[in-house]
Amino acid sequence: MSAVGEHERGVNARDELPAHSWATHVGPGLVSTATDNDPSGVVTYSLAGAQFGYDMLWMCALSYPSMVAFQLVAARIAAQTGKGLTLNMREHYSRLLFYLAVTRFLVANILNIAADVVAMGVGAQFLWHGSVPLFAAVFGMLSIALQWFVPYARYARILKWLAACLFAYVGVTLTSHPSWPTLALHAVVPRITWSADYFTMLLAVLGTTISPYLLFAQAEQQIEEHSPQAGIADRAGSDRQLKKLRGDTLIRTILSNAIGLFIMAAAALTLHVSGHGLVDVQDAASVLRPLAGGYATHVLGLAFIGTGLLALPPLAGSAANAAVSARDRRAGRQRNRPVARALLVVMALGVLIGVALTLVPIEPVRVLYWSAVLNGSTATPVMVMLVLLSMKRSAVGDLSAHWTLRALCWLATVFAGAALVAEFACKWLG
After folding, report:
1. Cα(213)–Cα(86) distance, rounded to whole angstroms?
2. Which one, of 403, 47, 22, lies nearest residue 224 by Cα?
3. Ordered domains of the chain (ranges, CATH)
4. CA-based diameter of the chain, in Å?
5. Is 191 strand, coil or helix?
6. pLDDT tens across 304-352, in order?
7. Closest residue by Cα to residue 332 from 91, 81, 83
8. Which residues of 282-293 are buried (b: 16+ CB within 10 A; e: fewer)?
């Protein structure tokens, strides 16, 4: 029985809900789109379009197969072992490598939470005016309360309608009458500029497209939904589960990537074409002005709040599971209480840092952008460990990942590593 199910039945609800409510399956659609395109992602895609026009559209299209492959590999590992990625990595890698990866993952997630808290404060100010630090604190505490007391699926059904604001970027692109052949060509043919700015932006787009926390969340979700014992004992049952997962992943990933592509295209058609650039959150809102007019800031504000509240639970939940797994080998319900405590600590740190960032003279756009850069910079070691783990029979048994999945994962991993090296070379070696 899932934690959410027990919560609804009043059985040990306080111990069960916080540990797993973030991982409850809500199916492909708006919720997945918002989780994958949180405020940090929205701003990063907008910056990429404003600065480089169509030149990075290919990242949204060509990353799709690898995004699907990584999620399926993560789910396969969880289905076979009945354990999350962090526990599996702990068992199969050296302690030094494992703790280094977990530490970088935790830091990236906490700073991503902080950045999204900042964005929710800005979004609330767009709607109601007032103090950004106060709004950031209120929405941060609201997220903590929702994660502790309310099943994720229940409030996601409401918040997903705020995430529908993301489709405004599709409207901006359509009403701007782009050259569709040119847009399509840039979406499938990479265009690379050898400069530090380009490769830093590439890492940011990578960090918000193939987000490591989504892979950890995918594995935990697989454990939450399906009995590990049944997955091991009944190969046919596991195949059916993974077939359904594959269909869901294909749908939600293409929707998420399409939204990212349209955000980038809309910024290219508005800010890049005019040569204005994107400096602050008002510029970010101006991307929506061709469609929303004077309500552009309101639409962006609703998008920030909705996507922020939907993205914080998997961010905090995956970080909490990673933190607990780093020092505790227990699995199943025995982990619920320590994971719940870790989740509160992670969220509290993220909210405190986020509120502190609103009190210093740092443009929120930069905070959101650099959190994406950090995600992209820390993605490579996690990706390497995940692909190597999928090749270990001791970890995945007969349910080993197909060679095509491994090839797609290796392709993305090599690309991410090359982008990191190129960014370093351009910046430090001239």
Report:
1. 11
2. 22
3. 20-428 (1.10.4160.10)
4. 62
5. coil
6. 999 999 889 888 888 888 888 777 655 555 567 788 888 999 999 999 9
7. 83
8. ebbbbbbebbbe
How far is it, in rounded angstroms, from Cα 188 to Cα 186?
6
- Looking up tokens 């890492």 gives 203
CB 35 within 8 A of CB 55: no
283-313 per-position pLDDT tens digit: 999 999 999 999 999 999 999 999 999 889 8
Question: What is the pTM (predicted TM-score) of this model?
Answer: 0.87
Alpha-carbon distance of 330 to 226, in angstroms, equals 18
Residues 261, 58: contact at Cβ < 8 Å?
no
The structure tokens 């480089």 sit at 52
Residue written as token pair 């505790």: 328
**Can you tell me whether residue 358 is helix, strand or coil?**
helix
Using CB atoms within 10 A of its CB, is residue 394 exposed (0-12), middle (13-18) or buried (19+)?
exposed
User: Residue 245 in contact with residue 222, Cβ under 8 Å?
Assistant: yes
- For the stretch 288-296, contacts whose Cβ atoms lie closer than 8 Å and that sit 24 or more positions apart, written own/partner, are 288/168, 288/169, 288/172, 290/172, 290/175, 290/176, 291/168, 291/171, 291/172, 291/175, 292/168
Q: pLDDT tens digit string along 69-116?
A: 888 888 878 777 777 788 888 887 777 777 887 888 889 899 999 999
Q: Residue 130 phi/psi, 5° resolution?
A: 100, -160
Q: Are 290 and 175 in contact, with CB atoms under 8 Å apart?
A: yes
Give the separation between CA 220 and CA 152, rounded to whole angstroms: 14
Question: Can you tell me the distance from the alpha carbon of 234 to that of 79, in angstroms, rounded to the nearest whole number?
Answer: 11
Contact at 8 Å (CB) between 64 and 282?
Answer: no
Distance CA 29, CA 379 (A): 25
Neighbours of 385 (CB within 10 A): 19
Report residue 282 as tokens. 């008002």
